[in-house]
Amino acid sequence: MAQLFEILFYDGYQDPPVYHLIGGITGETPEQALADNLDAVTEKVRAVLRLDSDCSDHFICKSLFVLRQSGLVSAARFETQPPA
Description:
By secondary structure, the protein is α+β, with helices and mostly antiparallel strands. The chain has 2 helices and 4 strands. Strands 2-1-3-4 form a 4-stranded antiparallel β-sheet. Strand 3 and strand 4 form a beta hairpin. The chain is globular, with a radius of gyration of 12 Å.
């Protein structure tokens, strides 16, 4: 059964650093939800936080996490294309 998982974006450039709640994604597991929705989540982060093209997809991916009961799942491990 699919579950809803919350997406967090870590912004370490603010003082103090913060996690922004971006929204939710659904999947059987947090890992599966990230793998299936990473491109859409990246675009949503751009829209919600008004990030322009100077902010790379790689940077966004490294800063994304999915909340689960036992902690956070990093989206960086699901990035399909390494930075150029």
